[in-house]
Amino acid sequence: MSDKKNWPLWEVFVRSKNGLEHRHCGSLHAADEDMALENARDVYTRRSEGVSIWVVESKNITASNPENNGEMFEPAHDKVYRHPTFYDLPDEVKHM
Amino acid sequence: MSEEQIKNLETQFEARIARDEKIEPKDWMPEKYRKTHIRQMSQHAHSEIVGMLPEGNWITRAPSLRRKVALLAKVQDEAGHGLYLYSACETLGVSREELYEQLHSGKAKYSSIFNYPTVTWADMGAVGWLVDGAAIINQVPLCNTSYGPYARAMVRVCKEESFHQRQGYEIMIKLANGTPEQKELAQDALNRWWWPSLMMLGPTDAESIHTEQSMKWKLKRKSNDDLRQQFIDQTVPQAELIGLTIPDPDLKWNEEKGMYDFGEIDWDEFWQVVKGHGPMNKERMKARVGAWEEGEWVRDAAMAYADKKQERKQKQAI
C-alpha cells in the first residue's frame, strides 16, 4: 500500500449543451481520473448544468504568469489594423 | 522588494479594486488580503460542512418522501457549497488538509448558528426559512466581491440557495396551518431560532473589527447592522402571513424610518457560543472529526487503488 498520500487536485470543465465549448467551472480532489469524473458530476452538475465533462489534473496545466502580462499581451495593443474599424470606407457601402 | 516598491504595488492594487477589477489567484496581492480571504472563505466553507450536521439529523425521520428528498438534496447542496468554497480557498496557496486541520483543531471558526440543536421536525422549517434566509442576505453581496474565485463560487451558491429557504418556509406554512400541536411546534421553532438568526449577521457595527477593511476589498458591501435590518424587515411579514409571532415584545413598525424597531440582542449568548460554550459545539466537532477519522481508510484505499491501476497501465505500456 502507498504511504499516505492526499488525493490530488483536478480542474473541471463542463460543456453546458452541445454547440457550446467546455468551460472551467471549478476544481475538486479525487484519487484518480474516474473518481474525478464522478465527483465532478456530483459537485458541478446536480441541476443538469452539463452534457459533457473534462477533468484534468491541476499539475498538468501550464499557465501564463500575470507578472509577465506586459511582454505577453501588450504587443497586440498597438495593432489596431487587425480590427475592421481601422479601415475607412465610404458611407455608401452598407455591409462589409 | 523594497518597502517603497511594496507600497507602490499596494496602491495600484487598491486602485484596481476601486475600479471594480477582479483579482485572480496568480495576481500580486498584499499578504493581508490573502490571509483575510483565506480566513473568511475557509470559515464560510467550514460553515457549509458543519451546517450539514443539524439537518442531517432529520433525514431519516422526515415525515414524507417529498420532505425527505428535498432535505437530502439540500444537505447535499451544503456539501457542494463547502467544496466550491474550499477549492476557491485553495487557489490562495493553502492546502485542503491544512484547512481541515484548522477546523478540527478548533483554530478556525464556523457560523455559530450550527451550535444550536435541531430538536423537532419544525426546526427543519425554521432553519431553512431563517438560517438560510439570513445566509442569503449575507451572501448575495459577495457575488460581486473582489476576489474572482470567491465571487464565482458565491454565484453558484446563491443560485442554489433559494430553494433551501423556500423548502423551509413551506414546512413552516404546513405546520402553521395544521393541528394546534403542529402550529405550536412551528411557533416553538421560531421562538428558538429567531434570536440566533439575528446574531448570525454578526456583531453590531460598533463591535465589528473587520468591517472597514472588508468594505474596501468588497468582502463586505453592507454593514452587519444594515444586513440585520434588511433580514428583519423582510422576515416579519412572512411570519405574520402564516400566523406566527416573532418572539420580540419590542418589535414595532417605525412609520417614520420605514423599518422595524426591535429589541436588544443578547450578545453575551453570542460570544459564549462563539467561544465554544454553545449547546452543541462539542457534539458538532465530535461528529465532524469522527467522520474524518473513520473515513481515513476509505481515502487511503482509494489512493492505493489509483496507484495500482496506474502501475498496471505502465506495465502494459512496456
Automatic annotation (TrEMBL), chain A:
InterPro entries from the UniProt entry: PaaB, PaaB_sf
Highest taxon, organism lineage: Bacteria
Pfam (any one): PaaB
Protein known as: 1,2-phenylacetyl-CoA epoxidase subunit PaaB
Organism encoding this protein: Psychroserpens luteus
